[in-house]
Design goal:
The protein is an all-beta fold and 119 residues long. 0% of the residues lie in helices and 48% in strands. The protein has a domain at 33-111: Jelly Rolls (Sandwich), CATH 2.60.120.10. The chain is globular and about 40 Å long.
């Protein structure tokens, strides 16, 4: 068994074309997991990821701030304590709602592949 204290996990800057801005950090929570990637993504104000899809389901657990999760058909605001299940292959985005920083834990299978669907 392993217990992780999220507030003690260091943040690393993430520079990736999937994000709309540079104010993004990641905290890798369970690097030794053989089955799941479990990280916290911290978005600066106004930063989100671009439309993309995962090969497997994705789970988001909001830990800080206010954010947005959207598909091509709907958009919803989310806040601390909200949990989002995104089905496999669904085109979606998530990130800061604009005027607040936003953080969520994401859980995906290690073998998951992301397809960016927006330039």
């Amino acid at each position: 068994m392993k217990v992780v204290h999220m507030n003690k996990v260091s943040k690393e800057v993430v520079i990736n074309p999937i994000f709309t801005g540079r104010k993004v950090t990641r905290q890798v929570l369970l690097p030794e997991s053989k089955e799941y990637e479990v990280d916290i993504i911290n978005f600066g104000k106004g930063v989100r990821n671009k439309f993309h899809a995962h090969e497997y389901e994705q789970i988001l657990i909001v830990t800080e701030g206010k954010g947005v999760v959207a598909t091509e058909k709907e958009e919803t605001s989310v806040t601390v304590g909200d949990i989002v299940l995104i089905p496999a292959c669904e085109k979606h985005l998530h990130g800061s709602g604009g005027d607040a920083e936003f953080s969520h834990i994401f859980v995906v299978r290690k073998e998951d592949k992301i397809r960016q669907l927006e330039d």
